[in-house]
Design brief:
The chain is of the alpha/beta class. Helices cover 27% and strands 24% of the residues. It has two domains: 96 residues, Urease, subunit C, domain 1 (Roll); 291 residues, TIM Barrel (Alpha-Beta Barrel), CATH 3.20.20.140.
């Protein structure tokens, strides 16, 4: 990919850095896909100048929990690839092997200023497989990938029970969910012990893809990302993660506001959403726009998600605006879709703020991003203009 040196001039820029709140007029210098200067830039000789006076610029938005590319738009439900519902424990599955780059939702994402996402397996299985973090410009899948295997998707609560109870197969209760999750990690521990013993004795050892995937979680090389809405499921997720000393995140966290101080004590990272949806099942009855503000006031690390296609990904910014309406400060809402989302995914060294060294992933707006009348006018990924109105 070829890049020119870009001098983005005259825009009101929100950098996302904690110590630097608000939109302020700043220039941005981009070279070889990276931000090299912000503010009064020097060394801009020979750069392509783009005058953005009258516009606003934010970091490209990051949606930390989607099913984009594995639940393609316009595909019948029977042909989507997010859930393999033959067994409740399927850690060997990878979104990397099912992602469809021509999903029209990628263009929708760009039109909404979303430059990076995590695509995850669905929540039908207790352990459903490995997600990936990717940029939203359609390309060869490996070239889109930021982290090819970014987390192990797991699920507690209604979804696995509703899939396997009709099959007379575990899990049929929340106890079954937890037992299967624990059992899978115990099996992986035993696998690791046997593999280590075989290596010491220099004996052959038969590989098992399922166990190797779980071993990466046990060794803290990959976080466990646990779908849970209800507060008892959230507590179970934390309990199991602590039992096996896992890195983990809480995905959805719908009733998290009811135990916010406890989540803060546990230093939980929570992805909150899709709050723009209806209460389509029992465990969503306490869904509220108050949740992000309550978590923020308690000191819980949070980000905002669409769970696309549950909420169309181009409306990620709408979720932030509605969180502001419920009491979340504007800067915190924007961070929930930028730097906090990057931290949730562990890619904050590359994206989430506008500062030197970061990828030049930017969204250009014709007004306040949190105003419903505002539109994205251009989206840049790695310094390249990949979408414009």
């Amino acid at each position: 990919m070829q890049h020119t040196t870009l001098w983005l001039k005259g825009a009101l820029v929100w950098t996302g850095r904690d110590q630097d709140d608000g939109f302020k007029e700043r220039d941005i210098l981009v070279r070889d896909g990276k931000i090299v200067q912000v503010g009064d830039v020097a060394g801009k000789e020979g750069a392509e100048c783009i005058d953005l006076s009258g516009f606003r610029v934010t970091p490209g938005l990051i949606d930390a929990h989607t099913h984009i590319g594995v639940c393609p738009e316009d595909f019948p439900e029977a042909l989507v690839d997010d859930n393999d519902m033959a067994d409740p424990i399927t850690p060997q599955l990878r979104v990397l092997d099912a992602l469809y780059p021509q999903d029209t939702a990628f263009n929708d994402a760009l039109s909404g200023g979303v430059t990076c996402v995590q695509a995850l397996p669905g929540s039908a299985n207790v352990i459903g497989g490995q997600g990936m973090i990717l940029k939203t410009k359609p390309d060869i899948v490996e070239r889109m990938a930021v982290v090819a295997c970014s987390g192990m998707k797991a699920a507690l609560g209604e979804n696995p029970v509703s899939v396997y109870k009709p099959k007379d197969k575990l899990p049929t209760t929340r106890m079954g969910n937890a037992a299967l999750m624990r059992g899978a990690f115990v099996q992986a521990q035993n696998y690791l012990a046997k593999r280590e013993d075989a290596q010491k004795k220099e004996e052959p050892f038969e590989r098992d893809l399922e166990m190797e995937a779980l071993a990466a979680v046990l060794k803290r090389e990959m976080p466990l990302r646990v779908h849970c809405h209800r507060l008892d499921d959230i507590q179970t997720a934390v309990r199991v993660a602590e039992e096996f000393n896992l890195r983990y995140t809480i995905e959805h966290c719908t009733e998290g506001r009811l135990i916010a101080s406890w989540l803060a004590e546990k230093k939980v990272y929570a992805a909150v959403g899709p709050t723009l949806s209806s209460r389509c099942k029992i465990e969503l009855k306490n869904k509220s726009w108050d949740t992000p503000a309550v978590l923020w006031r308690a000191g819980v690390h949070f980000c905002l998600i669409t769970d696309h296609p549950v909420i169309p990904i181009e409306h990620a910014i709408v979720s932030a605006a509605l969180a502001v309406k419920a009491g979340l400060p504007s800067d915190e809402a924007l961070r929930g879709l930028t730097c906090y989302a990057a931290e949730h995914l562990g890619v904050e060294d590359r994206m989430g703020t506008i500062e030197p060294g970061k990828d030049a992933d930017l969204a250009v707006w014709d007004g306040d991003p949190l105003d419903a009348r505002t539109r994205v006018v251009a989206t840049l990924i790695d310094g390249d203009s990949v979408w414009h109105r």
